Amino acid sequence: MPSSPLLQVQDSAATAVPAIRVQGVHKAFGNFQALRGLDLEVRQGEFFALLGPNGAGKTTLINLLAGLTRPDRGVLQILGHDVRSDYKQARRAVGIVPQELVFDPFFTVGETLRLQCGYFGIRPDPAWIGELLENLQLSDKADTNMRALSGGMKRRVLVAQALVHRPAVLVLDEPTAGVDVELRQTLWKFIRRLNAEGQTILLTTHYLEEAQSLCERVAMMKAGRVVALDRTSQLLADHSRPSLTLRLPSGDQPPGDLAGRATLLADGRWRLPLVNFADTEQVLAHCREAGLVVQDLEVGAPDLEEVFVAIMQRSGQ
Amino acid sequence: MNLRGFSTLLRKELLRFWKVSFQTLLAPLVSTLLYLLVFAQVMSGRAEIYPGVSYREFLVPGLAMMAMLQNSFSNTSSSMIQSKVTGNIVFILLTPLSPLEIFAAYVLAAVARGAAVGTCVWLVSLWFFPRWPAHPVELLLFVLAGNLLAAVLGLIAGIWAEKFDQLAAFQNFLIVPLTFLAGVFYSIHSLPPFWRDLSRFNPFLYMIDGFRHGFFGLSDVAPAESLLIVGASAFALSCVALVLLSRGWRLRH
Fold it and tell me: Which chain B residues are closer than 8 Å to A87 by Cβ?
């Protein structure tokens, strides 16, 4: 099976150039300030998540990188190529999967991919197109008109279109919205493979568990600014703790000091934040000493959703 | 120059109308022939407009050019507005295609459609009025220049319009009146002086009149003057379209 040539891992000199560089970028739409002096750098070969609530400016940033929107001021580069003054090289280096489910109803899947490749000045490579279709489970749809595809299939064609010219950087703007679980896993398996082969991935998603499991670094945006940027593991360590959820006999509450730390949930269970997983035994020991019978128990791992909520609340003022 | 990119976009635009040729080629051919049959029948007793040219024959080049202009306009304008409204314009905007390459691909495809419609009309009209053009090269120049002008106008309209009804208004209130009032059905010499002078400001007049000269060797305006006016108008509109594409007006925000 042919490999993806773009994905040759860069030499040490090349890796010094960031895959994506955003510096001091401002963008307003009328009175609405979408981006307020945004700074961001994504390194070559990274799997990077860009998270934020609706209206945070994620899609505006992606549109700026894609050249679909123009910045009021600031610098945007892809692999060192300015997206305005050196737009041809910048656009060759990036593949964008747009958030909207767009397609050209005149063409089949195969025609769509061959045309998209040609726009980049590249002769369509049947082997690579075949590989894309196979990995995105679209092989049997090559001759199907785009109109006849389901939403999930159209979404996967968008991914194939973004990859057909073998870009070094892939930008995925909520690629799994409306995609079923099985197809989502297929997609991520393929994207992980591309990343392992050296491709830089920038992902925006509202499925935070996807970002947590896939991405090495995470940036969180709010109101046009980056409000948190760190390794995923560091953000989890800094902002999230494991927790223990208990069901106690009706009317009972956690004993002693634990009661002060515990939160009563709507379903009648108690949630206790833990310092670490080893803390679980200590909590249970306290319950035993107090003669309480734990009827149900669930240990919760730190998760990015908790981090996200904490950071958004903290930066809300 | 991204030649492969340009040729791919040109191919895509050609395929786009070819895939619906029933609507883009056959339908205009049928409607033009209907005009020809109805007007030729109703006006059959009318005197010759030019010596040796019956009214029915006089109609052929005018109707052929009118069909060409409307179709080349439609090709660029409908392709652009459909891509904008459905959002698939991003597939072009995300690529390294330059404004000139985008312009050339859209316009050439539209010229090809206009020329194809015109050729079909002419070939079918040969059945009724077998006459070889008096000046084929001149005729070809007017086909190219006229279709180019209409295609560029369509591209500008497609970039400008944000909704289908805006484009329909552009077509119904500008393109259709300009073509109908450009001497398709009459010689401007048959008009009162005021309307004759006013017609001189209609660039479509020169396309149709020059094209007719290519057919019969007779026209209301000197063909060189017509070609100059059509060519200059096409060049000026091309400059406008290129500026709009370069600035990304109503395309990149």
Answer: 96
